[in-house]
Every structure is written in C-alpha cells, then in structure tokens.
Amino acid sequence: MGKREQNKARKRAEIVDIATRSFFERGYAATSMSAIAEELGGSKATLWAHFGSKEDLFAAVIDSQIDTFARDIDEVLTSQIYSVPTLHRFCLRFLDCLLRKNSIELYRLVLSDGERFPEIREMFYTRGPAKIRECVVGFYATHFDRDQAGKLMQLTVSAITGYRSDILVRPDKPTKADRETFVDNLVALIALSADAGTLNS
User: Does this entry carry the keyword Cell cycle (predicted)?
Assistant: First the structure.
C-alpha cells in the first residue's frame, strides 16, 4: 500500500472512530454528517469523499465492530469439528463478546432506533448476527444433518443472547463463575438433546 492509500485508510479509520462515539453517545437519529465533519476538522468534502451518506457511515461502524467480534468467534469455530469441549469454548467466547462494552452499546442503539429506522436493524442483522448464525450452523453440520444443525444453532444462539439480555436488565450482575455455570448447564442440555435427537421440527 502506497503512502497515499495509507493516509486515506488512516483518515477513514479516524472517521469511523468519531462516528462510532457519536452514534453510541447520541443515537442514530441525533447523529449528523455535519456534526461528524465538524469534529473531524477540515472541510465536509473530506467526510463525503469517504462516505456518501450517514447510512454508509453507519454500515462502516457496524463492520468495524463486527470484524473484531467475528475474529474472536472464528478463532474458536473455524475448521473445528463438532465436539462438546469446542461447543463449550464457543459458548463462553460468544457470551464474553456479547458482554463487551461496544457490543452492548451497538445492541442498545439498534434496539432503540431500529423501529424508527428499520434499515439500520436490517443492516446490523445481515452484517452481524446472520453471519454468526451461519458460522454456528456450519460447526454443527460437521456432525449433524443440516436441518438438525439449524435447530441446534437456534437453541444455542437464542439461549446465549437471551441470557445476555437478562444480564443487562438485572440489578445484580452475575459473576464470572455464574456465567460459566450457565454455559456448563446450557452445553450439557444441548449435548443431551443433540445426541438423543429429541429436537422437534
């Protein structure tokens, strides 16, 4: 990458960082391209040269957040064949990723503004959760048929994301040991259901 391309990449990353803070602090509706350009400094043309709309900029923010999340998930699941220990590692990692500050802020943003701006909800889902779900299906499909893998994915993801939602609204937060116990119990139930073939259509 030449110097010009490096400078362009650095400026783009700077814009995304500023936009991330703005979206998280103010919400989607209250964040404007003008305000981001003002915080960035220089002319508005610099911002518009990188992003043609607020929607494009929000997509870049999502991608930035999802990239880190996906790398952590891939590290556990990529090229892995289904096993209970691997499932256990994935569930712990997935829950840890969901409880990171940026993950929570992005989730709250999509929930709060997603009704007024359904495009950001769809953007978030297709760029993030949908990809994670397919990755989990692929993991289960190394041992189960595709239909069963889809059911196991739904059970796994719904349980962990539901537990994350429970944690966010509880006044008394579970300890790390509590979270690990939840994962232990979840994995035991999933493994039992999967091996017994008791999941219904």
Answer: no
